[in-house]
Sequence to fold (465 residues):
Amino acid sequence: MKRIIALSIVLIMAVLFTACAKKAEPAGKETAAETVAETVAQNTPVETEAETDTEYEEVTEAIPEESPEERVSVSVWREIPVADSPALLHPDIKTTFEGGQAPDNRMIFELSYPLITLAQDEAEKYPELNTAILEDFDNYCIQTAQEDRERLEESFNPDMLNDEYFGTLTCKRTAEVLRADENFFSVRVDLVSYMGGAHGQSVRECFTYSTQDGSLITPKDVFVSKDALVTALKEKLEAIPDVEYFNLDEDLDSHDFENGRLADNIYYNMGLTGDGVIFYFNQYELAPYAAGEQIVLLSYNEYADIMNPVFSKTADSYVYPLNENAEYDTRSGKLVFSNGYDEYSTVRSAKIRLDGKDYEFETFTYHPKQYLVQAGDRTFIYAFEDADDDDDFIHVMEITKGEAKDCGKVEKRLYSVNEEAEIHTILDANCYARSDTVKAFTDPMEMVLQDGKIYYVGEDGMPAK
Fold:
């Protein structure tokens, strides 16, 4: 009994001494590794003397020398089934466009919304994902389209047509697939709207699911803790030039870490790509309207110490869309893409910054869409051009091994199937509806282009049959 009392006193003194020592340390910036270690400590069970006869020193020496993420992955994250080398999926995106014209042929409104369909064999192979897309994503898009129609009707006033500067009211939603493989399926919906007033608004929303079980993926599934995520996001956001945030610490912390989209929560707009986890912060979310949106990609390699390793199990080849002026940490370096324009001429250009080095290539016209194309160990940018004469081109640039070069242009576009139909009348307008269905650009080895044939990335980087 005396031995137990003595040992208890020693342990209490040791705890008090440690607490005092920690209190004396200067406060510093918490790193991701420290956050991981803290989470490990909180989730590691401690044996008491009643459970074991081993001395305290022996218990300390017996702790296995595992990396923090190895221990955390067992105690923090739920089990998500994945394959080590996942095959790519090939979904279709059907976008329905609706519009209405006034008697003088001016457009009164434009509305669009997307639906996603898996290929039949993939839908049969992954029924849970297919159900999630149909019941969650597609139903959400159908519901929001109805709400958009109601918003258009509420915003329209016939007197607006008497204003020679009247602008078409718009609620246009389109979809881009960020990642589609046997492990995870991530899609982004882009909304561009104008309901009158000084300016319009753009919003991005992400939907990410487990391919194997159809469950919704949230930040809690991906990151070791909210503190670790906020620390990483803050570091990236503060590096974006010329942005004055409202209150970055408070606003990042106000986002819901454990849940996805709920009616009454502020959630992280998180998607997955082949290179990392991407976050979209919309206008007004962190900064004033003039600052636009902020996009942050946390790469699987750079932030491996705070991420669930199952998400880095990607295919060898993949495709995902690039946003202008956002930095992407790719296999070939840190990439920023933008469109250049000389206001004194009609010359346009594609501007690339790769690991701090600038490149500029002349183009025919503005690039409305551009994609990062990872074809094995080679990295390309496929920029789609809309020419004035309705001829569409793909401008191909390679950024392999830290150098950018122009591969050339080809008169091609993504293959689409068009359908047209009349719809009900709203806003007293002459209305129409049409749908475009395209094979989502997800696979560098199976690109379906305008002639309906399948292409792959050739040796010269250009599409080849």
